[in-house]
Design brief:
Layout (H helix, E strand, L loop, with lengths): L8 E7 L5 E6 L15 E4 L2 E5 L8 E6 L10 E10 L3 E5 L6 E5 L4 E9 L7 E8 L5
Parallel strand pairs: 5-10
Antiparallel strand pairs: 1-5, 2-4, 2-7, 3-4, 6-9, 7-8, 9-10
Protein backbone atom coordinates (compact mmCIF):
# COMPACT_ATOMS: atom_id res chain seq x y z
CA UNK A 1 0.00 0.00 0.00
CA UNK A 2 1.21 3.52 -0.83
CA UNK A 3 2.19 5.54 2.25
CA UNK A 4 3.41 9.12 2.29
CA UNK A 5 3.67 11.69 5.03
CA UNK A 6 1.45 14.11 3.05
CA UNK A 7 -1.46 11.75 2.44
CA UNK A 8 -4.31 11.18 4.83
CA UNK A 9 -5.65 7.67 5.02
CA UNK A 10 -9.44 7.64 5.57
CA UNK A 11 -10.15 3.91 5.68
CA UNK A 12 -10.23 0.63 3.79
CA UNK A 13 -12.03 -2.67 3.55
CA UNK A 14 -11.95 -5.96 1.72
CA UNK A 15 -15.45 -7.40 1.47
CA UNK A 16 -18.02 -9.16 -0.66
CA UNK A 17 -20.08 -6.25 -2.04
CA UNK A 18 -23.83 -6.86 -2.21
CA UNK A 19 -25.24 -6.70 -5.76
CA UNK A 20 -21.80 -5.72 -7.10
CA UNK A 21 -22.60 -2.06 -6.45
CA UNK A 22 -20.92 0.53 -4.22
CA UNK A 23 -22.53 3.86 -3.38
CA UNK A 24 -20.41 6.83 -2.32
CA UNK A 25 -22.68 9.62 -1.09
CA UNK A 26 -23.08 12.59 1.17
CA UNK A 27 -24.60 11.43 4.47
CA UNK A 28 -27.69 13.52 3.70
CA UNK A 29 -28.13 12.47 0.06
CA UNK A 30 -31.54 11.13 -0.89
CA UNK A 31 -30.98 10.76 -4.64
CA UNK A 32 -32.18 7.36 -5.88
CA UNK A 33 -30.29 7.43 -9.21
CA UNK A 34 -33.58 6.51 -10.89
CA UNK A 35 -32.02 6.66 -14.37
CA UNK A 36 -29.03 4.46 -13.45
CA UNK A 37 -28.34 1.59 -15.87
CA UNK A 38 -26.62 -1.57 -14.64
CA UNK A 39 -24.51 -1.79 -17.81
CA UNK A 40 -22.58 1.38 -16.94
CA UNK A 41 -19.62 1.45 -14.56
CA UNK A 42 -20.51 4.74 -12.84
CA UNK A 43 -23.49 7.02 -12.45
CA UNK A 44 -22.90 10.35 -10.73
CA UNK A 45 -25.16 13.12 -9.47
CA UNK A 46 -24.16 16.19 -7.42
CA UNK A 47 -23.89 14.44 -4.04
CA UNK A 48 -23.49 10.74 -4.81
CA UNK A 49 -22.03 8.22 -7.21
CA UNK A 50 -22.80 4.58 -8.01
CA UNK A 51 -19.88 2.32 -8.96
CA UNK A 52 -20.31 -1.18 -10.40
CA UNK A 53 -17.73 -3.54 -8.91
CA UNK A 54 -16.96 -7.23 -8.96
CA UNK A 55 -20.03 -9.31 -8.08
CA UNK A 56 -19.78 -11.12 -4.72
CA UNK A 57 -19.91 -14.56 -6.38
CA UNK A 58 -16.61 -13.66 -8.10
CA UNK A 59 -14.85 -12.58 -4.91
CA UNK A 60 -14.30 -9.67 -2.54
CA UNK A 61 -13.56 -6.07 -3.45
CA UNK A 62 -10.61 -4.19 -1.93
CA UNK A 63 -11.12 -0.47 -1.31
CA UNK A 64 -8.77 2.22 0.03
CA UNK A 65 -9.79 5.83 0.69
CA UNK A 66 -7.51 8.85 0.99
CA UNK A 67 -7.97 12.57 1.49
CA UNK A 68 -5.18 13.37 -0.95
CA UNK A 69 -4.79 14.49 -4.56
CA UNK A 70 -1.47 12.76 -5.27
CA UNK A 71 -1.42 11.14 -8.74
CA UNK A 72 0.87 8.41 -7.36
CA UNK A 73 -2.07 7.04 -5.38
CA UNK A 74 -4.08 6.26 -8.52
CA UNK A 75 -4.43 2.69 -9.73
CA UNK A 76 -4.18 1.60 -13.39
CA UNK A 77 -7.64 2.58 -14.67
CA UNK A 78 -9.49 5.89 -14.18
CA UNK A 79 -13.06 5.04 -13.15
CA UNK A 80 -14.27 8.55 -12.23
CA UNK A 81 -12.74 12.01 -11.90
CA UNK A 82 -15.07 14.85 -10.99
CA UNK A 83 -16.72 16.74 -8.17
CA UNK A 84 -19.01 15.72 -5.35
CA UNK A 85 -20.91 17.95 -2.93
CA UNK A 86 -21.40 17.59 0.80
CA UNK A 87 -22.99 19.99 3.26
CA UNK A 88 -20.78 18.84 6.15
CA UNK A 89 -17.89 17.00 4.48
CA UNK A 90 -19.28 13.66 5.63
CA UNK A 91 -19.79 10.72 3.28
CA UNK A 92 -20.88 7.11 3.44
CA UNK A 93 -19.53 4.32 1.25
CA UNK A 94 -21.85 1.33 1.24
CA UNK A 95 -23.51 -1.34 -0.84
CA UNK A 96 -27.30 -1.44 -1.43
CA UNK A 97 -27.91 -4.15 1.18
CA UNK A 98 -25.64 -2.46 3.78
CA UNK A 99 -23.36 -5.50 4.16
CA UNK A 100 -20.54 -2.99 3.72
CA UNK A 101 -20.73 0.48 5.29
CA UNK A 102 -17.93 2.94 5.97
CA UNK A 103 -18.45 6.54 7.14
CA UNK A 104 -15.86 9.07 5.99
CA UNK A 105 -15.37 12.54 7.47
CA UNK A 106 -13.24 15.04 5.56
CA UNK A 107 -11.86 18.35 6.74
CA UNK A 108 -14.03 20.43 4.42
CA UNK A 109 -17.69 20.84 3.52
CA UNK A 110 -18.89 21.99 0.12
CA UNK A 111 -17.61 20.84 -3.24
CA UNK A 112 -14.77 18.33 -3.28
CA UNK A 113 -12.83 16.66 -6.04
CA UNK A 114 -13.29 12.89 -6.19
CA UNK A 115 -11.02 10.55 -8.14
CA UNK A 116 -11.77 6.85 -8.27
CA UNK A 117 -9.31 4.47 -9.90
CA UNK A 118 -9.35 0.71 -10.19
CA UNK A 119 -7.63 -2.41 -11.42
CA UNK A 120 -10.08 -2.97 -14.31
CA UNK A 121 -12.31 -0.83 -16.50
CA UNK A 122 -15.45 -2.87 -15.82
CA UNK A 123 -16.35 -4.62 -12.57
CA UNK A 124 -13.09 -3.77 -10.73
CA UNK A 125 -12.03 -5.89 -7.75
CA UNK A 126 -9.74 -3.18 -6.40
CA UNK A 127 -10.61 0.52 -6.02
CA UNK A 128 -8.89 3.59 -4.68
CA UNK A 129 -10.91 6.66 -3.73
CA UNK A 130 -9.19 10.03 -3.41
CA UNK A 131 -11.09 13.07 -2.20
CA UNK A 132 -9.76 16.55 -1.59
CA UNK A 133 -10.80 20.17 -1.32
CA UNK A 134 -11.20 21.76 -4.75
CA UNK A 135 -9.11 24.76 -3.67
CA UNK A 136 -6.16 22.39 -3.12
CA UNK A 137 -4.22 20.58 -5.82
CA UNK A 138 -4.97 20.55 -9.54
Amino acid sequence: MYQDEDEEFLGSFCAFVGNGLLIFRDVNSTDTHADYRWDTVTHAVADSIYICVQHPVDGPVEVDLYEDDSPELSLDVAIFDGRIDSLQGQFVLHDPVEDVRLKITTDHPGSSRLRISGDEETRPARLRFQIWNVTQGA
